[in-house]
Amino acid sequence: MDSATLDWLDRLLSEHRRAEDFIGSRPLVGVMRQQLGTVVDLYAGAPAAVAERVVRLASEHAQFLAWMAQDQGQSAAALAWYDRSHEWALEAGDANMAATTLSMKAHMAWSGGRGDRCVRLAEAARWSAPGASPGVQGMAAQMMARGHALNKDATSALRLLDEAEALIKRAAERPEDEPPWMYFYDDTWFAMQRGMAALHLGDWRGAVAFTSAGLEALPGEYRRDKAWYRACLAHALAGADEPQHALEVALMSVPDAAAVGRPHAWNELHTAAAMLLRRGTHEGRQLADALKENC
Fold first, then answer.
1. pLDDT per residue over 165-176, tens digit each?
2. What is the largest CA-CA distance in the chain?
3. Alpha helix segments (H runs only) across the chain
4. What pLDDT, on the 0 to 100 scale, is given for residue 47?
5. Angstrom distance (rounded) from CA 146 to CA 26
6. N or C: which terminus of the chain has fewer CB atoms within 10 Å of its end residue's CB?
């Protein structure tokens, strides 16, 4: 039990995070549970010099398991893992992970349509961990913005998005100060967060512009995220009265949404189809049929 062993476990966790971006969460849950079990078992015999690092590593594993449960719509399991991760983060003195777990619980609230709770949890992530990195603080700020957008408070949402963007720029100046799980957090990702806020606020053209720009720059290895944001773009295009374009984008998303994007991207495609059907377009029926075929 030494630093070299922990270095190897750190690299393994990093590779699993990136694999999950492409293959989705389902194939990895069993592996990651076993890996966390290994880390916990190592703690009993860890010398004092590395004990805190072992706890921090356990916290990172629990956060990843929480995210995978959340990705699969298993809310109770996700909350339990986030709570466990947060407790270990506090034990290890890891402000970045303590704040991240609260931001991700805010993300869960947002996913469930609970704007007020999203804002409160994201705000708690900021005040409870003032030592968190600029990137982690920026994640909390944009989650607050999402909650306000969900509540149709455009002024607060846009103000917090500007604040989050400034924090992202600070983070980009010193990437070495950011925790490893923030590898995805950059201008490309943030453009799509602005698109999400615009979608909630009914700014269809803004949602189309921001989401399209982010998708164009998003690397291919982010397969699950591409499925999600394409589904959101289809929704925005439907709102912007571009049914043909909405159908084209939605059909591009269907295979990966079916394979690695359930339930979130899949549900968003159904939302887009419902909007197109309500507007009496034949594209709505085509999309609904495509979703039925891939059920």
1. 999 999 999 999
2. 67
3. 3-23, 29-44, 48-71, 75-92, 95-111, 115-127, 134-150, 154-173, 187-200, 204-217, 223-239, 243-260, 264-278, 282-293
4. 87
5. 27
6. C
Q: Are 121 and 144 in contact (CB under 8 A)?
A: no
Q: Which of 148, 162, 86 is nearest to 120 (CA)?
A: 148
The residue type of 168 is I
Q: Are 195 and 205 in contact (CB under 8 A)?
A: no
Tokens representing 79 are 């909350």
N-to-C CA span, the chain: 47
pTM of the full structure: 0.94
Residue 133 contacts residue 103 (beta carbons within 8 Å): no
The domain defined by 186-295 folds into 1.25.40
Structure tokens at 134: 């600029």
Compute the average pLDDT of residues 61-88. 97
Spans of all domains in the chain = 1-93, 104-185, 186-295
Axis-axis angle for helices 75-92, 95-111 (nearest 10): 160
